[in-house]
Amino acid sequence: MAEIITMPRLSDTMEEGTVVKWHKNVGDKIAEGDILAEIETDKAIQEFESEFDGVLLYQGVAEGVSTNVDEILAIIGNEGEDISGLIGGGAKATTEVKEEKSTPSETKTEEAKPASEIPANVEVITMPRLSDTMEEGTVVVWHKNVGDQVAEGDILAEIETDKAVQEFESEFDGVLLYQGAKVNEPAPVDTVLAIIGEAGTDVSAIVANGGKVAVSVASTEVVDDEKPVVVQLDVNNKVEETSSDRIFVSPLAKTIAKDKGIDLAEVKGSGDNGRIVKKDIENYQPSAQPKAEAKSESVKPAQTFVSGEDKVIPNSQMRKVIAKRLAESKFTAPHYYLNVELDMDNAIEARKQLNSVPDTKISFNDMVVKACAMALRKHPAVNSTWTDAEIIQHGDINIGVAVAVEDGLLVPVVKNTDQKSFAQISAEVKDYAGRARDRKLKADEMDKSTFSVSNLGMFGIESFTSIINQPNSCILSVGAIIQKPVVKDGQIVVGNTMKLSLACDHRTVDGATGAQFLQTLRMYIENPVTMLV
Q: Which site among 77, 103, 362, 373 is 20 to 30 Å from 254 CA-CA?
């Protein structure tokens, strides 16, 4: 079956690409790893290699011509395969023209055909937006393969968002006709994830048009009795002179080699002119023969240093989104910080009494979360969000509790926190934290926060500052409880203290407002009985 190759997004800001040079012409045989073309992005000219074996059946872009990302770049398939349905009927191969006769030729213009409809028995499923910040998703595992029977409610796949891995179930009955996303390869939201329908239904035209209805445009063709003459593109480009010690390697193979710590000089390439391609790296076996040691009788090194190897870790979807959102918050919201140190003696005693109740286990973090919720009710300006047009003071108090996970940070949200008891908050936070570490949180359990709490006290951190979790206006950083000398009633005694740091967005929360909030928060935490009244 023919494979459609679209203009790739070779940089994060790329919107269109220009084919500088085709390395393969229509009719050429292609192997996986062969360079198809050189593509100019908004940042550089990059070689683009094929991921498929076959014959180049179609070039969608001529040399020197630009096209948008995700438009058809090429089609690879079996020799002689009919691809007219894949190119929409209106496109023309860039390497074929019909020779005009010296005598006048007759032309005819086809009228534009109406859009072909997606069959009634076919359902196109797109990559869902499983969180409010999700821009692309990654299929971790497919639970159904092409050809499998699917019933409504069956799990189709597990999808990794920027926050969690979630099971995605089918809303339709039928047969899985097409998988639009490969395992472990990100796919943008709203692109085709799967197609379900009756067995044997041809969905190639739907796939070619990205799940949308196909539209045939008006076309003008030359009517001639003569057969078309194939005219090859002019590829009389100068070849750069290179030194004999240059290593020819595809960009993908180079990246994989770097990840695996493979020395390209030791790899034998199987591509054109000895070029190293992806499969050469994957099949590479290091030589058992040790490298020859340099000999020098006159100079001996005084000390031998063993250098460590760099470890390249690809950015996960979660890490990408964390980086993007925190950078946006830090450089758009004018942060300022307020710091206080609390006397925790009463809180320690109150916690002991609360935990004396059977089946009760309240943490200091639970007490802080409850205190924040009650303080927010008294200071609604802190429970707010900035927009360019207005400031929104939220009616609900929903506190996000930062949870460290293996690949970053998740912030599950305790909804209506001010209306819940210590025990309810404790149970909810424990449940969220456990499922967060297993990446099993649902999207609605991580949205609509109005204030956030980050606690590193369990790691012995005395004080720190956090970046505001947009669209919140503030985030509270909680340090460890420390025993140290303090002054009480004019005497130096051993006391228990805890430091808090409040990061505020100055667009919504003025300094005095933040300070008043911290005063109220101090009152609640230092005197927990006030939260029970």
A: 77
